[in-house]
């Protein structure tokens, strides 16, 4: 199957967490279906932009582009369409994880993102760490965790921040089980570098959210 087919399958998979959250958040289903398409387009553009940043080419994809580009794009889209940004981003987080699950299936079939060599025999046969499967499982678990967090009303408006933190932490660890990791910036491979950035940005957004929430009663008086 080609990349477009995997993206379409990912879109279909994203509908599941999006519809669940739309019920919990009382967000209109028709808007949720539109969000599925828009999020796919935004995420795809983000992965291509990040590929250009890392490699100087749009020929591949880098998932962190979706992680970073989504909140920026939806900040302006929600402002223009007058939609609740915090709610929309809450819905985006588990959906992106679901898309990543599907895209890791593509990695598995294409043979990219291969894991480190664990052992080799005299005939040259090697056993590798199953990095694609590990990252696929990680994305699936994160999707479930984020869905559980979104059922807690006190955490609503922070789900995307938690997504950036949790994905950044787990991806940082898993990155070192990949093969052929060249240094990108600060002596770190690209995946590890963007993981640190993701955690830092997520913590900043989380603190900013609670700071603004704490200031709201004072502003209303």
Strand-helix topology:
Blueprint: H1 3-25, H2 29-55, H3 64-81, H4 85-110, E1 117-120, E2 126-128, H5 131-150, H6 159-175, E3 183-185, E4 188-189, H7 190-220
Antiparallel strand pairs: 1-2, 3-4
Helix pairs in contact: 1-2, 1-4, 2-3, 2-4, 3-4, 4-5, 5-6, 6-7
Q: What descriptive keywords fit this protein?
A:
221 residues; mainly alpha
Description:
- With about 220 residues, the chain is mostly helical.
- It has one domain (about 5-115, about 130-215).
- The chain has 7 helices and 4 strands; from the N terminus they run H-H-H-H-E-E-H-H-E-E-H.
- A two-stranded antiparallel sheet has the order 1-2. A two-stranded antiparallel ribbon has the order 3-4.
- A hairpin with a 2-residue loop joins strand 3 and strand 4.
- The longest helix is centred in the last third of the chain and has 31 residues, at about 190-220.
Short description:
The protein has about 220 residues and is mostly helical. The protein has helices at about 5-25, 30-55, 65-80, 85-110, 130-150, 160-175, 190-220, and strands at about 115-120, 125-130, 185, 190. The longest helix is centred in the C-terminal third of the chain and has 31 residues, at about 190-220.
Number of domains: 1
The separation of the N and C termini measures 58 Å
The global form is globular
Average of per-residue pLDDT values = 89
Task: Tell how many strands the DSSP assignment holds.
Answer: 4
Say what oligomer this is: single chain
- Residue share in helices? over 70%
Note the total helix count. 7
């Amino acid at each position: 199957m080609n990349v477009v087919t995997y993206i379409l399958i990912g879109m279909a998979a994203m509908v599941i967490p999006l519809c669940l959250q739309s019920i919990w958040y009382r967000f209109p289903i028709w808007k949720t279906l539109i969000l599925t398409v828009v999020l796919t387009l935004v995420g795809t553009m983000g992965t291509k932009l990040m590929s250009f940043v890392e490699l100087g080419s749009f020929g591949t994809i880098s998932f962190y582009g979706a992680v970073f580009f989504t909140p920026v794009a939806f900040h302006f889209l929600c402002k223009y369409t007058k939609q609740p940004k915090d709610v929309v981003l809450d819905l985006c987080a588990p959906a992106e994880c679901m898309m990543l699950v599907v895209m890791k299936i593509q990695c598995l079939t294409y043979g990219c993102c291969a894991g480190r060599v664990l052992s080799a025999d005299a005939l040259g046969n090697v056993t590798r760490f199953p990095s694609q499967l590990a990252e696929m499982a990680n994305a699936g678990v994160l999707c479930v965790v984020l869905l559980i967090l979104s059922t807690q009303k006190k955490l609503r408006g922070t789900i995307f921040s938690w997504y950036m933190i949790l994905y950044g932490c787990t991806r940082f660890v898993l990155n070192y089980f990949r093969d052929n990791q060249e240094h990108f910036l600060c002596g770190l491979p690209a995946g590890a570098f963007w993981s640190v950035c993701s955690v830092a940005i997520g913590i900043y957004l989380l603190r900013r959210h609670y700071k603004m929430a704490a200031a709201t009663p004072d502003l209303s008086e």
